[in-house]
Amino acid sequence: MIEAGSRDRESPADALCAPAPPPMGAAEERAMESLALPGWARWSLFALGFVFLGFGALGLVLPVMPGVVFLILAAACFARSSPRFESWLVNHRHLGPPVVTWRRTGAIPRHAKLAACLGMAASFAVMTIGGAPVVAIAPVAAIMLACAAYILTRPDAPRAP
Fold first, then answer.
1. Which whole number is the average pLDDT over 109-133?
2. What would the mean pLDDT of 16-27 be, rounded to a whole number?
3. Which of 44, 59, 61, 115 ranks highest by number of CB atoms within 10 Å?
4. If 0-12 CB within 10 Å is exposed, 13-18 middle and 19+ buried, where does residue 82 land?
5. Rounded (5°) CA angle 120-97-50
6. pLDDT reading at 125 higher than 50
7. Are 144 and 120 in contact, with CB atoms under 8 Å apart?
8. CA pair distance 55, 61, nearest whole angstrom
């Protein structure tokens, strides 16, 4: 016996017969995700992306400042705010390769791990010797330990041929 209103419901057979929507590419999916954000959030991420891009570009030429971390953050901000600028950054001749490598492997070169951990240890030592209050030292130590743990648990980047 057919229930009233059952014709309005879709049966499993109907679902199998319906044409599937065309698959979306990664760029289209990111563009759709960015549209889900309110306008103020997209503009904020867009501006933050340029700030990170500036720090990343400086970090590539200054020996004491990390550059790749900021380029990765810039790409993440652009991915949610402007797929066009994300594509520009990822395909840039000088700035793009480290971002692409990070996205592909998630690996950090061993020398970069060592430099990051030594830099954090030196900063902590200066802060401690400089007489910072314990209320400041404790959270900084916790954050630095968490960062070091994350860095050290990433795989080592393969050596360049």
1. 89
2. 52
3. 59
4. buried
5. 70
6. yes
7. yes
8. 10
